[in-house]
C-alpha cells in the first residue's frame, strides 16, 4: 500500500484508504451472500417444474419394484436423467428413462426425501445425516446428531456451502456440505415434544432459512442461525404421512404459502413474517404449489360424506380463481391425499376412496387411485387415470421431461 500511495497527497491517501476499505467490506459481504439460483430445495421450493407437461392420459413407461403395497416410498427427485428415491431401508438411483438400477445404498432407516446438489445426495436417516456420491452411491461423509436432539424429521435444503434439516425435538441443523462439519443449530421454543417437531422441509431465500414448527413459522439467518422473525399460525401445521409430516410450505419472491389444520390458508411476507392474507378452506390442508401467480392446494374434509377439494387462489390477493370438489376418501386420523404439483400450465394430484384395513395399519389405504391432470388456469379436467386398487406410498408427484413419476403399491411408476 505504501508504494501505491508514494507521492500522493495526504488528502488523496485518505481517499484511497477509504476506497480500499469500502471495497473490502463490499467483497466480504458479497462472499457471505447466498444467490437464490444456487439453492436446492425439496420440489424446487415451489412444487412447480419448468419442464414439458403431460397433457394427455399417459401409459406406463416402466416400473421399478421396491416391496409390497405396505412399503412406503419417502420421496424422490430427478437430476441429470437419474431418479433418486428412498424407502425405509435404502436409497436408490435408477435411470429415469429406463428404470434400470444404477446403485443402491443400504443401511438407512427413514421415509425422507433425498436432495441432490452439486453431485451429492443428501439424506437424513434416524440420528445420522449422509452425503453420498450421486454417480457411484459411495458415502462421502456422515454426521451423527447430538444425543437428545431427536431423529431427523425433514428433507434437506442446500445453499451457501451449507445443508439444513430439522429434527423431531425442534432443532434446525446447519452442516458444511463438503465435510459434514457442524456449523450451528437453532432450537424452536415450542412447549412440548410434539409441538417442537420441525415439519416439512426448510426453504432458503434472501439469506434466510424458513421452516415450520407445530404452530409457528420461523425465519433464521443463514450464516449463524439467529432468529429473524417468528409467526404463529394459530393452529397445528401437521398432516402426517407414514409418520412424517406432509406439509411442505412453498414460496415465491414475496411470500411463503401454507395452511393449517383448521382449514386456514395464509400468505406470509418473506421479509417481515406478517400475514398478508388468509383464505378459509374446508378441512385440513396439505402442501401447496405456486406457479405463474397462482397458488394451488388440496384440502380434505371428514364428515358424513367425505370430501376432497382442489383450490386455485390468486397469490397476490388470496381471491379464489377456481375450486374443484370430489366425493372421495378422507379419514380423521391421517390424510393421504397428495399435494398438487404443477408443470407448465398443468396441475397434477391424486384422490380416491379410502378404507383403513381391519388391523389398523394406517400405512395401507385401499381404494381406486386416480391421478388427475387439470388445466392450471381454468380448472378444466384434462385427463384422469386409474392404476387400480392400490395404495399411494410416495408423498408427491414428480414431473420431468414429459414423464410423471409416482410411488404406488410398493413400486415407482414412470408414466408417459
Question: Brief description of this entry?
Answer:
This protein has 416 residues and is mainly beta. The chain has helices spanning 10-31, 193-196; strands at 48-49, 60-65, 75-79, 82-86, 90-95, 101-106, 115-117, 120-125, 128-133, 139-144, 157-159, 162-166, 171-176, 182-187, 199-205, 208-212, 216-221, 227-232, 240-241, 244-245, 250-251, 255-259, 264-269, 275-280, 284-285, 289-291, 294-301, 307-314, 320-326, 341-343, 346-351, 355-356, 365-366, 368-375, 381-389, 398-400, 403-408, 411-415. It has a domain at 46-74 and 286-416: Lipocalin.
Structural summary, described in words:
This protein has 416 residues and is mainly beta. It has a domain at 46-74 and 286-416: Beta Barrel (Lipocalin). The protein has helices spanning 10-31, 193-196; strands at residues 48-49, 60-65, 75-79, 82-86, 90-95, 101-106, 115-117, 120-125, 128-133, 139-144, 157-159, 162-166, 171-176, 182-187, 199-205, 208-212, 216-221, 227-232, 240-241, 244-245, 250-251, 255-259, 264-269, 275-280, 284-285, 289-291, 294-301, 307-314, 320-326, 341-343, 346-351, 355-356, 365-366, 368-375, 381-389, 398-400, 403-408, 411-415. Strands 1-30-31-34-35 form a 5-stranded mixed β-sheet, with no helix packed on it. Strands 25, 26, 27, 28 and 29 form a 5-stranded antiparallel β-sheet that branches. The longest helix is centred in the first third of the chain and has 22 residues, at 10-31. The chain starts with 9 loop residues before the first helix and ends with a strand. Residues 24-31, 240-244 and 355-366 have low confidence and may be disordered.
Amino acid at each position: 500500500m505504501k508504494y501505491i500511495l508514494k507521492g500522493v497527497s495526504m488528502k488523496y491517501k485518505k481517499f484511497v484508504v477509504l476506497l480500499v476499505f469500502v471495497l473490502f467490506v463490499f467483497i466480504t459481504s458479497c462472499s457471505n451472500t447466498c444467490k437464490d439460483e444456487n439453492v436446492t430445495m425439496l420440489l424446487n421450493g415451489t412444487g412447480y417444474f419448468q419442464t414439458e407437461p403431460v397433457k394427455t392420459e399417459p401409459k406406463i413407461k416402466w416400473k421399478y419394484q421396491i416391496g409390497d403395497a405396505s412399503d412406503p416410498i419417502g420421496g424422490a427427485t430427478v437430476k441429470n436423467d437419474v431418479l433418486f428415491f428412498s424407502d425405509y431401508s435404502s436409497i436408490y438411483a435408477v435411470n429415469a428413462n429406463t428404470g434400470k438400477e444404477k446403485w443402491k445404498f443400504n443401511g438407512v432407516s427413514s421415509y425422507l426425501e433425498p436432495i441432490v446438489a452439486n453431485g451429492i445426495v443428501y439424506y437424513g436417516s434416524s440420528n445420522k445425516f449422509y452425503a453420498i456420491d450421486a454417480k457411484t452411491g459411495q458415502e462421502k461423509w456422515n454426521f451423527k446428531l447430538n444425543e437428545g436432539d431427536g431423529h431427523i424429521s425433514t428433507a434437506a435444503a442446500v445453499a451457501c456451502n451449507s445443508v439444513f434439516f430439522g429434527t423431531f425435538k425442534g432443532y434446525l441443523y446447519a452442516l458444511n456440505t463438503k465435510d459434514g462439519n457442524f456449523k450451528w443449530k437453532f432450537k424452536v421454543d415450542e412447549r412440548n415434544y410434539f409441538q417442537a417437531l420441525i415439519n416439512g422441509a426448510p426453504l432458503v431465500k434472501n439469506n434466510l432459512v424458513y421452516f415450520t414448527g407445530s404452530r409457528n413459522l420461523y425465519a433464521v439467518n443463514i450464516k449463524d442461525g439467529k432468529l429473524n422473525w417468528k409467526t404463529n399460525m394459530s393452529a397445528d401445521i401437521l398432516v402426517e404421512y407414514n409418520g412424517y409430516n406432509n406439509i411442505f410450505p412453498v414460496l415465491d419472491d414475496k411470500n411463503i404459502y401454507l395452511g393449517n389444520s383448521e382449514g386456514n390458508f395464509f400468505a406470509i411476507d418473506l421479509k417481515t413474517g406478517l400475514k398478508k392474507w388468509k383464505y378459509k378452506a374446508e378441512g385440513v390442508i396439505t402442501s401447496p404449489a405456486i406457479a405463474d401467480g397462482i397458488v394451488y392446494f388440496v384440502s380434505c374434509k371428514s364428515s358424513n360424506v367425505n370430501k376432497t377439494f382442489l383450490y386455485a387462489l390468486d397469490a397476490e390477493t388470496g381471491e379464489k380463481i377456481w375450486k374443484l370438489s370430489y366425493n372421495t376418501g378422507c379419514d380423521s386420523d391421517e390424510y393421504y391425499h397428495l399435494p398438487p404439483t404443477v408443470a407448465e400450465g398443468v396441475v397434477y394430484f391424486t384422490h380416491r376412496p379410502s378404507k383403513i384395513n381391519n388391523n389398523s395399519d394406517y400405512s395401507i389405504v385401499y381404494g381406486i387411485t386416480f391421478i388427475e391432470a387439470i388445466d392450471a388456469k381454468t380448472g378444466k379436467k384434462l385427463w384422469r387415470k386409474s392404476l387400480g386398487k392400490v395404495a399411494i406410498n410416495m408423498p408427491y408427484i414428480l414431473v420431468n421431461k414429459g414423464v410423471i413419476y409416482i410411488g404406488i403399491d410398493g413400486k415407482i411408476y414412470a408414466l408417459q
